[in-house]
Every structure is written in structure tokens, then in C-alpha cells.
Design a protein that fits this description.
There is one protein chain. This protein has 493 residues and is of the alpha/beta class. It folds into two domains: 363 residues, Glycosidases (TIM Barrel, Alpha-Beta Barrel); 109 residues, Immunoglobulin-like (Sandwich). It has ten helices and 26 strands. The strands form six sheets. It has a ten-stranded mixed sheet, covered by helices on one side. Helix 9 runs parallel beside helix 10. The longest helix is centred in the middle third of the chain and has 16 residues. It is globular.
């Protein structure tokens, strides 16, 4: 019987709610049709935002939402998206599908979305094709409360009070679509841009996030921290999980072999190595300052669904993706001393989405349900955890049977989240609680075959259900189904 150890007397600190952040890019049907349909749409909406999508997302208690990209950010000129919608420029999205969009969703609309969701805004600014002045003006437009040219422009556009946008990304993937820059060049630009990104209120200081590394580019992180660490609050990291490293043939989202299943999990487990190594560099160059690691793009990336626009990155979502989500969230929880934010890519209709839409229809994905199961980790105290479990080997790629994280909320309740990565076998797990004695345990599980998914014709095929747990003298036991994600809420005596 595998054993899971929870040490309630040891903790790395508080799990930042922002670890459960989301990402919405002007890409495919994420914004338009997925979130925003306009005020005149037949689909029920409030100020243009789909009611069904917003209500579903509100249930996840989303802490922060990143926008407008992604690669789109470094081609986006924010002034094109303000003022009367009928007078806004129509642009071509050269990054994603070459489609035209009318800029009807811009700064004010995005802030309305965050208002409805009750979350913070995270703007990714244009460094690749923009200017220092343009970026500086955007911050002033959003955050200046007094009299200034940009504050006056904001008021002309119907918003008297400042938005107080806290999180600002200084470019996106500067090593790639954000300018194909060298680390040294970007670090200098980061210093320059940061100088002119000002806080306009002592009560609302902005938080600056540098464009960080792609996967294991430790030279990039080291260079940015060494040269610009004193002017930023965090540095980003991007890592996508691909079954196959050939970007032209990444693998199907729904039709995959057992070998591809374990390969996917093995590769997503690499996030632990990346977080640890980049965090080590951050600590080396932080100089006593608190600099965070923002994993602001992560998730699975497969071939697009057959018959869809290749530039829209629309893919289905299965129990395999649910396990990927669980593994990564466990890793972020367990490294909460450094990981200050994470943003799964992406929220609606793109890559590892929470929600898929088709016209007026909406479906919640298995990944959505994992985020719901894990929501109580937000703002809780991380607890040391360890799974003593067997190792599943497939084609020389090691995958542990169980993967776990735990936390304690302000009310004293303990949340233990466990993924059983074995695609074929249920396992009886014994959870040992060091430092507390359980008075009650409530369990919930999401499970199914690895390719199980929710569709528009069968939207409830994969749903959470109650999972019995039996109290013991030292904790509790539970039978974890094959290919499952379980959450146990422990009420101490």
C-alpha cells in the first residue's frame, strides 16, 4: 500500500493565489466568441461578456488574468483598442491565423471582464514592436488618478477612476516572437522600460515581470537577473508539455497510445526541475530582494483538432490533461517560496482550456474540474508532503504512481490533493497526518480513462464525484481510481 506523508509542522509558506491564474490571448476563439460576444449578441451577456462563461469561471475564484498575449502582445498597440468601438482600427492578427479583428475588445472591455470575474489584471506590454513612450502611456492611462494627458483621455472614454492595474509584463518571449532578442539586449531594454513604468499611487504600486526563459535557458535567466534584477519584481518562465518534440507533429489531443500517455506525464514532471533550477538562479542574483518566478505560460500543446484553423490552436481536453494540470499545480504549491504566479494557457477554446464553446453551447473540461478541486489551496499555508509510491516505467521514462501536495487553510482544515498517474490500476493509499488527528475527511475524485473527455453532445462524461475515505489512528485511507485526481478535506480534532 502506498503511503502519503503530510507533515503539518513544516511549511515553505503561503501558496500565492496567483498560482491559479489564467491566460487569455487574442488567439483563435479565446476572446471573440469564447469570452466576448458583444452587447447585441443573442447569447446572454453582460456588457458583451458571455454570462455562461463568466459564471463558470467565477466558480474557480480566478485570482489574476493575463492579457492580451502571448505573441499577440508584442504586436498590440493599446490605443487601437480604446474609444468608441465603431471608430477603432481593424487589424490583422499576423501571429494567429491571419484573421482580421475590429478591436472591439480592448483595455476597457478587459477591465470589465476582470471586474465581472473579481480578479486582478495582468497586462503584457509591447516591447517587441512598441516604444517606451507607448508602454509608459498605457500605465498612466490605466493608473493615473490625478490630472495628466493619459488620465484625461481615459476620462474622455468613460472611466473616471483609475483601474489600478498592478501586474505588468515587460514584453513576452523576447527570445522568440517578442523580438528574437539576445538575453543581453533584452536585459538592457528591460532596465530602460522599467525606468518609465511608474506607480502613480503609494497605495497601488505596480509589479513588474520580466520576459523570462524558454524551458531550460538558464543563461537567459542568469543574464536578466544579473543585469536587470534590481528593477523587476519577478521573471517569467514558459514551458509547454508536448508528447512529441516535433512542433509540426506534436500528437493528437484525444487519440494517443499508452506510451504517449506516459511520455506526456514524464515530460510535464520536468516542470519540477525547471522551477528548482530557475529559482536557484533567482536566489543567487536577488541580492536580498524578493524576486518571484512567474510561470505565466504552461500546459499541454497538441496538434489542433482536425478541420479547425491551424492558427487557432483549438484542442480537446481529456483526463490526461487533468493529470497534467494536477501535477503542475502540485509542483507550484510545493515551490510556493519562489513561484509567485502561474497562468495556464489558455482559458477558453485555446490549448489546455478550462472551457470550450461552440456558438451558444459551452462545455467544462476535465482541467476545469481540477482547478475547482484545487481552489482551496489559494492563500493557504503549504504543508510538507511526500508520496512513498511505486515508479511506473514506460519506455525508460519514470513516472511515480502518486503525486501530491497539501495545505492548511485559515480555518485549520487541511486539503490534500493526490493524482494517481497509473492509467490502468486503482490503488489503496494510506495518508499519514503528522501533527494533527483527523475528526472527519471528505473526499472528491475526478476519474476516467486517459482519453475520457466532455463534448458538446456529452458535456458531463467526466464529472467529480464523492470518494469515501476511512479514518485511521494516524490519518485516513482511500481507494484512488486509475487515472484520477482526488482532493481530501481534513477537519482536525
Amino acid at each position: 500500500m502506498p503511503h502519503i506523508f503530510i507533515n503539518t509542522n513544516r511549511s515553505l509558506g503561503t501558496i500565492d493565489p496567483n498560482i491559479y491564474g489564467q491566460f487569455s490571448e487574442h488567439l483563435g476563439r479565446c476572446i471573440y466568441q469564447g469570452i466576448y460576444v458583444g452587447e447585441n449578441a443573442e447569447i446572454p451577456n453582460i456588457n458583451g461578456m458571455r454570462c455562461d462563461v463568466v459564471n463558470a469561471l467565477k466558480a474557480l475564484h480566478i485570482p489574476v488574468l493575463r492579457w492580451p498575449g502571448g505573441c499577440f502582445a508584442d504586436t498590440y498597440h493599446w490605443r487601437d483598442g480604446i474609444g468608441p468601438q465603431a471608430q477603432r482600427k481593424t487589424i490583422v492578427n499576423t501571429n494567429w491565423g491571419g484573421v482580421s479583428e475590429d478591436n472591439s475588445f480592448g483595455t476597457h472591455e478587459f477591465m470589465e471582464l476582470t471586474r465581472q470575474l473579481g480578479c486582478e489584471a495582468y497586462f503584457s506590454g509591447n516591447v517587441g514592436s512598441g516604444t517606451v513612450q507607448e508602454f509608459s502611456d498605457w500605465v498612466e492611462y490605466c493608473n493615473m488618478g490625478g490630472v495628466s494627458p493619459m488620465a484625461s483621455l481615459r476620462r474622455e472614454n468613460g472611466r473616471e477612476a483609475p483601474f489600478h492595474v498592478k501586474y505588468w509584463g515587460i514584453g513576452n518571449e523576447a527570445w522568440g516572437c517578442g523580438g528574437n532578442m539576445r538575453a543581453e539586449y533584452y536585459a538592457d531594454l528591460c532596465r530602460q522600460y522599467s525606468t518609465y513604468l511608474r506607480s502613480y499611487s503609494p497605495d497601488h504600486k505596480i509589479y513588474k515581470i520580466a520576459s523570462g526563459a524558454n524551458v531550460d535557458d538558464y543563461h537567459w535567466t542568469r543574464t536578466v537577473l544579473e543585469r536587470a534584477g534590481h528593477v523587476i519584481d519577478a521573471v517569467s518562465l514558459h514551458y509547454y508539455t508536448l508528447p512529441h518534440q516535433d512542433w509540426q507533429h506534436k500528437g493528437s489531443a484525444t487519440e494517443f497510445t499508452e506510451s504517449e500517455y506516459y511520455t506526456t506525464l514524464h515530460k510535464t514532471l520536468r516542470m519540477e526541475e525547471l522551477v528548482e533550477n530557475h529559482s536557484r538562479i533567482i536566489r543567487q542574483f536577488a541580492g536580498g530582494r524578493k524576486i518571484g518566478l512567474a510561470v505565466d505560460e504552461w500546459g499541454t500543446w497538441y496538434d489542433v483538432e482536425p478541420g479547425t484553423n491551424p492558427g487557432f490552436l483549438y484542442q480537446q481536453n481529456t483526463m490526461r490533461d487533468a493529470l497534467v494540470a494536477a501535477i503542475n499545480l502540485n509542483i507550484f504549491n510545493n515551490h510556493c517560496d519562489t513561484v509567485c504566479m502561474a497562468n495556464i494557457a489558455q482559458m477558453v477554446n485555446v490549448l489546455q482550456a478550462m472551457i470550450l464553446t461552440e456558438g451558444s453551447k459551452m462545455v467544462l473540461t476535465p482541467t476545469y474540474h481540477v482547478f475547482a478541486l484545487y481552489a482551496a489551496h489559494q492563500g493557504a499555508q503549504q504543508l510538507e508532503s511526500y508520496a512513498e509510491t511505486s515508479i511506473l516505467r514506460h519506455d525508460e521514462e519514470a513516472v511515480p504512481m502518486l503525486h501530491v501536495s497539501a495545505s492548511r487553510a485559515a480555518d485549520g482544515k487541511i486539503l490534500v490533493t493526490v493524482a494517481n498517474l497509473d492509467a490502468a490500476h486503482q490503488t489503496e493509499a494510506q495518508v499519514l497526518l503528522g501533527g494533527v488527528k483527523a475528526a472527519a475527511v471528505d473526499g472528491t475524485v475526478l476519474c476516467g480513462t486517459a482519453d475520457a473527455r466532455n463534448t458538446f453532445t456529452a458535456p458531463d462524461a467526466v464529472q467529480p464525484r464523492a470518494l469515501p475515505a476511512v479514518l485511521t489512528a494516524d490519518g485516513f485511507t482511500a481507494a484512488l481510481p486509475a487515472c484520477s485526481v482526488a482532493a481530501f478535506t481534513v477537519t482536525p480534532q
